[in-house]
Each structure stands twice: as C-alpha cells, then as structure tokens.
Amino acid sequence: MTTTKWTDRRVETIVGNLLRIGVLLSAAIILAGGLVFLVRHGTEPANYRIFRGEPSDLRHVRGIVRTAAALRGRGIIQLGLLLLIATPIARVAFSLFGFAEENDRMYMAFTAIVLVILVYSLVGTA
Amino acid sequence: MNNLEFSLAIGVCSLGAGFLGALTGLGGGVVLVPLLTIVFHVDIRYAIGTSLVSVIATSSGAAAAYVREGFTNIRVGMFLEIATTLGALLGAFLALVVPTAAIAIIFGVVLLYSAYLSGRPQPVVPVDDQPDALATRLRMNGSYPSLDGPRAYYVHKVPTGFSLMFGAGALSGLLGIGSGAVKVLAMDQAMKIPFKVSTTTSNFMIGVTAAASAGVYLNRGYIDPGLALPVTLGVLGGSLLGVQLLTRTRTHRLRLVFGAVIVLLGLEMIYKGAVGRI
After folding, report:
1. Residue B68: predicted pLDDT
2. Domain count, chain B
3. From the list B40, B60, B138, which residue is nearest A19 (CB)?
4. Which residues on B lie below 8 Å from A117 (Cβ)?
5. Is A45 helix (H, G, I), strand (E, B) or coil?
6. How far is A65 from chain B (nearest CA, A)?
7. Distance, CA of A25 to CA of A103 (rounded, Å)
8. Per residue in B92-133, pLDDT tens?
9. Which band of pLDDT confidence, cut at 50, 70 and 90, is reported for residue A1?
10. Searching chain B, which residue's CA lies closest to the CA of residue A96?
11. Out of A1, A54, A107, whose CB is closest to B221?
C-alpha cells in the first residue's frame, strides 16, 4: 500500500490546525459579540417562539460585515458564524492545493466540484 | 426568560449535547433541535438554522483531534462530499417549502431510526480483503493505526455509498443535523470501511456538508445570532471535551443511553408535529 504525500501526517496536521484556528477564532468573535449583546440587551425578554426571519443586514456577507463594523453585538456574532461557515470551505480550498501538489487531477476535479457547490450556497442563493 | 438567563440555560444544555454527540459519533445536532423546540419553545426554523451552524463547529473543532489520530480517509471523504453537499443544497431548499409540522414528524422518524442504529448490536461486517475495482481506481483504499501497527483495508460498493451519502446530505440540509448516523452506516456497513475510520471520516465530512446548507439558511434569515451564541459555544466546548475521551473510551454503553434519550425526543417530535403544536 503506497501512501501519497497528501494523505501523510504532515499535511493532515496542517489541515487539522487550519480547522482548529478557524473554529477558535470564530468562537472568540462570537464570544466577544455575545458579551456586547448581553451587556446591552441581557435583561430584555428572549422570544424565539415566532419565526420572523433575520433582517437583511444579518443575512448577507456585506450586511454582516457592515453591522459588525458598527460594533453591534448581533452583527459581531453573525460575523463569527460567517467565519465558522467559511472554515470548512477553506479546508476544501486547501485540499485543492494538496491534491495539486501531487498532481492528482482526479481528486482536484472532485474537490473543485465540492468547492463550487459550497461557494454557490453561500453567495449564490441570496 | 430574559436574554441572559436564556443564553445560560441553553449554553449548559448545548454543552451536554456536544459532549455526548462527539463521544458517540452521532453529533450534537440530533438532540439540539428537539431540545430547542420542545424544552425552550423555539420555532423549529430558528432551531434548525442554529443547529446547523453548531454542527459545523462540532465537526471542525473535533476534526483537529481526529486528524491527529490518523484515522480519517481524506479521499473517501472528499469524493463522498460531492454527494453530501448536493444533497444538502436540496435539503435546504426543501426546508424552505415543507410545512414545519411535516419537518417535525420527519425529524422524529430520523431520531427513532438513529436510536435503532446506535442501540442495536454492531453487526459484524465480514472482512472483505478482495480489492474492489472502482474503489481501487478511485485510490480509496487505505490503512489505519492499530496496536499491531498500520492495518490496511479495502473500500467497497462506492455507488451504494454515494447514493446513501446524497440522502444523508439531504437530511442534514432539511433538518439541520450532521446525519452522522447515516454517513457512518454508508461507510461502515455498505462500503466496508473499518468503524473507527468511518466515524472519523464521517465527522470530517459533516462540517462541509453542513456548510453547503448553512449558506442557504443564512441567506434566508434562519440563523439568529442571539440563539446561535449559546448553542454554538456550548456545543463546541462539549464536543472538544468529548473528543478528548473518544480514543480512550468504549462507547457501547454510552450509545445505548444516548439512544434512549433520542427515542423519547423522537416520539415527542412526532407527537408535536402530528397535533400541529410545533
């Protein structure tokens, strides 16, 4: 059984670290936004019984970045969530380079398909 | 409840869900949606959107530890992600049009089936040491670390696994769960991949699958920051604790206990959906 470069420990460790950094960074942003949100709105009643849907500023990449930049708690949390959603997408993008490094055209194609689906979901379904 | 009390209560419950989810390989999402809807009376659409994001956190957070263990089969995972992400997109679009009562009933049925899968004795999959032509052409065969050094295995029945994965993705997108149970079933039972490799590769795939439907949910306003705050942080913390214990614990008894909880939640979801109180 031959093991190729991409599936060896070294690259797997990089991928693992990438995921961990992405998750920890987004968790830190969510926590920071959560503190802002709870300090300002902690004593207001929580009501999620009725579905209203989020305002458009919290639905799209540009609106989320703008709301977070205005230091609104909910906007910062949403930015952290956006980063969280982007983390596995970054992993797939990184895999593309991994397979390219060992000239594995077949798996580069598979990875590209997955990447297109992910990017379409995030920016193409608005 | 005010926002602070609500966040603390949900945060603690999410911690437990993430812990058990990581330890059993079933994911936290499977109990989160019933927990949020039944106990905290959250609208199921918010619950699904939030759960889905926390599923990404669980998968990515745990993957770092899994990858170090060297169990994950990256090629199998990447190939099958084509099926799961397409399924996830379909599931997310279905979730926008299917009535919430119907989603609750489907959720309940999936919970019961997950419990059945985790509760039954692990069927012994006969070792098939004949290489499969398609899997070999796709370079999927691998090896995993065992006490006697690396042990090689052959992957089988790729088309069956691919179809099951499409279904797993659709369920994930429709219900906001990782559908790890179906993914493990597809790899472990159908494709004859060793159990540890199946569970870790499943975890590896769950985040990517969930990201494919999370984009749709975000764009349609299903992901609420106030709700996602305690759920995401709680589930992430719990899953990191759980995965620390994963390689040192025999999970059979735990799966039975977790299975019993899932049965109760499943029956409750079906009942609530049937009487339209969801």
Report:
1. 63
2. 1
3. B60
4. 82, 85-86, 89, 212
5. strand
6. 14
7. 32
8. 999 999 999 999 999 999 999 888 877 677 667 667 678 899
9. very low
10. B78
11. A54
Cα B169 to Cα B159: distance, rounded to the nearest angstrom = 15
Q: Which residues of B177-206 are buried (b: 16+ CB within 10 A; e: fewer)?
A: bbbbbbbbbbbbbbbbbbebbbbbbbbbbb
Domains of chain A: which residue ranges?
A: 9-44+52-123
Assigned token pair, B115: 């419990």
Among B35, B38, B48, B81, the residue to mutate for chain A (most A Cβ within 10 A): B81
| Chain A residue at shortest CA distance from B89 | A121
To the nearest whole angstrom, how far is the Cα of A39 from the nearest Cα of chain B?
9
pLDDT at B40 over 90: yes
Q: Residue B151 — φ and ψ, nearest 5°?
A: -120, 125
Instruction: Tell me which chain B residues have a C-beta less than 8 angstroms from the C-beta of A88.
Output: 56, 59-60, 207-208, 210-211
* pLDDT score of B77: 93
> How many beta-carbon contacts under 8 Å exist across A and B?
219
Q: What is this model's ipTM?
A: 0.89
What is the rounded CA–CA span in Å between residue A78 and residue B88? 21
CB-based burial label for B208 (10 Å; 0-12, 13-18, 19+): buried
- Tens-digit pLDDT profile for residues B217-264: 999 999 999 999 999 999 999 988 887 776 666 667 777 777 888 899
Residues of A in contact with B60 (CB under 8 A): 19-20, 22-23, 84, 87-88, 91
The alpha carbons of chain B give a radius of gyration, in whole angstroms, of: 18
Note the pTM of the prediction, 2 decimals: 0.90
Q: Is B261 on the interface with A (CB under 8 A)?
A: no
CB contact under 8 A, A118 and B85: yes
